[in-house]
Amino acid sequence: MLSVMGLLLLPMDSVACRGLLYALFILNFVLVCQLILLQPLVSASGGKSGNAAELFDKVSESIKVKHYTEALDDLNAAIEADPNLSEAYLFRASVLRQLCRYEQSEGSYKKFLELKPGHSTAEKELSQLLQAKSALETAQSLFGSGNFIKSLEYIDKVVLVFSPACIEAKLLKVKLLIADKEYENAIAESGFLLKEDENNLEALLLRGRAYYYLADHDVATRHYQKGLRLDPEHSELKKAYFGLKNLLKKTKSAEDNANKGKLRVAVEEFKTALAVDPDHLAHNVHLHLELCKVLVKLGRGKDALDSCNEALKINEELLEALVQRGEAKLLIEDWEGAVEDLKSAAQKSPQDMNIREAVMRAEKALKLSKRKDYYKILGISKTASAPEIKRAYKKLALQWHPDKNVENREEAEAKFREIAAAYEVLSDEDKRTRYDRGEDLEDMTSGGGGGFNPFGAGGFGGQQYHFTFEGGFPGGGFGGGFPGGGGYEFHF
Question: Name one GO cellular component term (predicted).
Fold first, then answer.
């Protein structure tokens, strides 16, 4: 400075003097700026321990608020300024470990240990790093093999303990929760990720998928759409979004056709919708139920039973599926099963009159199933005319007449009684009407509570019956004409 002042004292014109002063000002300004900019690095490189402490405090604050990039930038700058600043390596290794950037972290730990051999904290953290790295690899392998529960244990108990900021591990955890059908937890975990970074495409995809599997399709759609606005070409988001649209379209078409009475078309469309995503249980339970209802209307009892069973397999408390399964069992004549299902449904909803009426129908069907089917015995339809009933009776009475069935007389007598009882009821218009209504028939036959007995007093329940057939019977007519003749005569 004295030399400079000396120069100022030399005679010079005013212009030269002003130029010299200006140059000195610029020189001093540059020096001051360099000192200001280099101060943190000089401090960190061993200038003043207080400034190094300030740097590490700043890094710690950045880590607390999860500004890991800022923390790493500060540490990298300090290391660049002083490659022997050991504490910066330790800090950087710790941040990288938390982010599960294991290769870089391991390198920083080793560099620190070169500068500070035998440092217990660094050796312990390096061991934790290696455990976390191995656990993450194991968790990924277990996920790939379908062992979701064990994989989740490695993530929760090892990886996220030693690497709490590991986005890769957190995303894997959400995938594991979805795979294990823990959709509520998956939504919560992916929500934390989106709070840290609302534009995390993978988190948006996974959270949308969790809502999708809860059948909250509107919210799922919003997540997919947000992700596609950020990246219109994201393949997984596109697949999820258009897959959902396709499912909803097919479902609506099936429901519309069912409502319009196009039942056979609806059946095929419900099956197509079910094939879109067999794992979407929360939605498929609805599809199985609607398919069951349509099949019941079509009278396809066995198919309807299968569909209702699938719905109840997903949700055993689904009341409507229980009712429809009861109706399906009625169609396949599983009377006891129908009563059981419908009574169970009535207990769950005692005020539902429709279910109570269904129980009454099932109980009546069960009761009717336990009585003899006279139409079936005579081999005629329920709409058979009186002449058709008589012809069927004549044919069977001749076929099973005990005198004609000497070798199996006991069986023939039992069959003959059955045929006669059927004819007695169905040939009487009043008795037939009551029978068709499902009334008790104990007093309908001439045998009273014991049933109709064609072998009773009078030859046939107190009456004489004579069959007359054109051409007669081999062996010469009825009335003892059969071998071992029992003397039965039938007159009409």
Answer: endoplasmic reticulum lumen
Backbone dihedral angles phi then psi of residue 315, each to the nearest 5 degrees = -140, 95
Asked whether the whole model's pTM tops 0.85, one would answer no
Q: How many structural domains comprise the chain?
A: 3
Burial class for 187, CB neighbours closer than 10 Å (0-12, 13-18, 19+): buried
Q: Is there a single domain that holds both residue 165 and residue 141?
A: yes
C-alpha span between 203 and 216 (Å, rounded): 17
Residue 354 or 10, more confident: 354
Structural domain for 407, as ranges: 375-492
Q: How far is CA 436 from CA 53, 375, 431, 445, 458, in A?
A: 100, 10, 9, 15, 30
CA 279 to chain centre: 5
Q: What residues pair up with 491 in beta bridges, in sequence order?
A: 466
323: which 2 tokens?
Answer: 């009712």
CATH number of domain containing 388: 1.10.287.110
Q: Are 473 and 481 a contacting pair, CB within 8 Å?
A: yes
In this predicted model, what pLDDT tens digit does every residue of 162-178 receive, in sequence order? 999 999 999 999 999 99
Q: Residue 438 has what pLDDT?
A: 77
Q: Is the residue at 340 inside a domain?
A: yes
